[in-house]
Input
Amino acid sequence: MKRLIALVAILCNTQSFATEYNINVSESMSFHLGKQHVERIFTAIYHPLNISPQFHYLPTQRGLQWVNEGHFDAEAGRVESAMYDFDALIPIPTPLATVRLAVFCLEPQFCELNPNEDTVIIEGSLLSIQYCQRHKLDCHAVQNTISAFQALAKNHSQQLLATDHFSIGSLCDSGLHRIYMQILPEPGVKIRHYIHKKHLTLRSKLDDSIREKLASGELTAFINSLSNEFANCHGEIVQLTTNNMLKE
Output
C-alpha cells in the first residue's frame, strides 16, 4: 500500500509540472529571438523531464523578481552579471550559448565606435549598458531590436551596439536588405538557464538535457537559424574583420 501511495504521489507531481511549470522570458530576449523560437527550444529542453512549460513575457527586472519570489519556476536565459540580486535562482551549469557584443551599421565606416557619435542600444541589454559606461559612449536605448534597426534605416543613428546572434532574429521585420556587423574584441559572455531553488532536484536533469541538445547540434542550429532567417527574406549580413573598432 505504501508503494502504491508513493507511486500516485510521483505521478501527481509529474502531472503538476506538466501543466503548471512557468518560465519567464525577458522582453528583450523575446524581441531578439522571437517568441516562437524561445518556446520551441525550451519545450525541447524540458521534454525529457516530462514537463510542458508555460511561457510569460515580463520586463527585465519585474520578471526576475517574480521568479526570485517563486511565482514563476524558471528564467529562460540570463548572463551571470545580471543575477547578483536574485539569490533564489540557481544556474544550470551548462550554458545555452555564448554571445559577444557587436556593432551593426549600414555603411562600414560607421561600425567604428566613437564617443562623439550617438549609439543605439536595446533597452534592458545589460551588456550594452555596461560597455557604454566603461567606454563613455553616448548611448540611447530604444524599446526593441526592430526599433533599433529602424533607427538605422531612418538615419536617426549610424550605429547599433548589441549582441551578435541574439540581435539578428528580427532583421526581416526591419525593412533592411543589407547590414554590416563588427564583433568587438570583448570576451564572450555565457547565457545560462536559471531555475528557482525549490526545483533544485531538476538541476542535473536539465543540465543533461542541455548537454544533449548541444552535443546533437540542436542548440547550435537554433542559434545559427537566426542568421539564416535574414537570408530567407533576401537580406545579407556582412561581417567586418577589423580587430579593434573603438577609437580611444
User: Anything to note?
Assistant: The helical segments are 2-20, 27-33, 35-46, 60-68, 126-135, 145-153, 203-216, 218-232. The first strand starts at residue 22 and ends at 26. The chain has eight helices and twelve strands. Residues 4-18, 243-248 have pLDDT under 50 and may be disordered.
